[in-house]
Fold this sequence. Notes:
β3, α5 and β4 (109-112) form a beta-alpha-beta unit. The strands form four sheets. Strands 3-4-2-5-6-1-7 form a seven-stranded parallel sheet, sandwiched between helices. It has 28 helices and 17 strands. α2 runs parallel beside α3 (44-55) and α24 packs across α26 (585-594). It is elongated, with a radius of gyration of 30 Å. It is α/β, with parallel strands linked by helices. Zinc ion (ZN) is lined by residues 372-374, 389-390, 392-393, 395-396.
Amino acid sequence: MHTPRAILKNVFGYDSFRRGQEEIINEMLSGRDVLGVMPTGAGKSVCYQIPAILSGGVSIVISPLISLMKDQVDALRSNGVNAAAINSAMDWDDVRSVLWSARAGKTPLLYIAPERLEGEGFREFLSSLSVSLVVVDEAHCVSQWGHDFRPSYLAIAPAIDSLPKRPAVAAFTATATEEVKTDIIRQLAMDSPFVLTTGFDRENLFFQVEHPADKMSFLLSYAKKFPGMPGIVYCSTRKKTESVCGKLVAHGIRAVRYHAGLDDAERLKNQEDFIFDRATVMVATNAFGMGIDKSNVRYVIHYNMPGSIDSYYQEAGRAGRDGSPSDCILLYGGEDKSTITYLIMQGEDKNTKETAFRKLRQMLDYCHTSGCLRRHILNYFGESVPDGGCGDCGNCRSVAERHDITVEAQKIMSCVYRAAEKTGGKKYGPHVIADILRGHPSNVSRREQVARFGLNAISTWGIMKDTAARDIVYIIDFLAAEGYLMTDEFGALSFTERSFPFLKSKTRLLMRRHESGQKPKQERVPDKAAAKGGFFSGGILETLRKTVTVGKRSAFSGELFEALRRMRREIAASEGVPPYVVFSDKTLQAMCDALPSDEDEMLSVPGVGRMKFEKYGHMFMDAIREWREK
Ligand code: ADP
Ligand code: ZN
């Protein structure tokens, strides 16, 4: 039976469609143009690969990068689909044999780079094929408003137009604002397309912004905490990339680097080491990643802030394509802002500059907001998110740990003000202020001081009777750390420029919960990172770790998972494909849970289709049996 569902099961090994997939496939099969805006990892490939397999003719897939095409072709072949790619690295003989096989109807999917379409010879060749579909991958590249504009994408529409019979056109992208969507439809001359936006949210990604005093030590402790887990660290410059990579290596982390200043051979080698899991951490400029399909990237750390949320989400989104929990952490430092501002100022065009500054502003807001980070991103892409936030980003989690101290702050600050007013500008330290507020001097000398200056007569005397002195002092420290109060070298308190505006505006003030009763002196809030919940308070990786090592079959499944992973790496090496082309992490995990012991059980593991079962099924079942018998 050749239904989309049967292909999904037999070729790709999946039981059910994900959100949006079936609708898109049906629209495409009915011959309608389609624009699919679906987040990374949502499963866009299946959306056009199934119609391509079912449609009979040749489907042309336009894809911006060789590596991306290669991955897709490898993955399709490993599932028994005879896909092919033509790229600039091939010699003419190879190209010709691919073309012949396509003309003979033996190649359901033909991947090409957009530049191909600029050649007249190639366009003529296309006219001799029975082209059933044209698929444009990474379609945002056609729009100048997107973040990766590729002029050669503009050759697509004329090429389609020159075909004897216009095939259906399908375009896919992960990130597109309304403006970019409209632009894609216009630039590709799509004919009243079916537009499906499944939403941009990537539920398995955990977002966090940190303002660490020392980015390097943050990064080091993070990377060391998760040894062996693949991660990408993005830096803004080649120089930064070099130094960060060097330091990671010096600390025994298998890191490699990638930027435009390296020669092609080294770039390729480093990229492959990372993709094939031989290197753990990729330190790179934004030159790295476009078209990299590595599905098991467990974290993306931005060592520097990118210039826009478009770029940030695109880069951070390279984490967790396989749907497993992954972290996206941005390390903010004030210097990032100046670097980007400087770059924008270098530009000539006024409009471009204005847009760039607007985008920078939105990125900065992301770094400084105490609201939900996920909501911030999704709103940016025009998607609304229920009030209250996602509950699962760095900010949402730390809000849960914070409490409202607005009223306390107002009382404390008025007390500082009144006490100074009463005594001709004399300043007092936190403990005296706490005593006044409690209406209860805690020792003889303070009692005398209070009496001498008449501090028991001011309006704030005793207005915090029920609060412990150390809790008042803790809040005072917090107010000082946040710049609402100032302390001199003797610890005496006074107002800052933020004090009056705060008292007037009645802004809410949230402070991280502390354990009441601890010694207040050591309780100073040291820096923002700590105030926001500490480095590792809630990364999803933490949870992942727990489920892997403390989960149901705990230690065993970790061991089995490692064994299967090793086997996968060997198979991949012998076939010259990346490990995730053999099976994804998720599929291996599912094997560990299901422990399949016969054909039916193995075939019901998500990601195991007919072809893969025949190739690898028994090897993996043997490994599982061995592990069980141990
Ligand atoms: P995208 O191109 O949208 O980033 P991919 O097409 O690479 O995403 O798919 C991401 C992962 O999800 C792949 O491993 C793919 O095999 C898997 N996948 C796709 N569709 C399904 C499905 N219906 N059920 C389970 N997994 C799926
Ligand atoms: Zn949130």
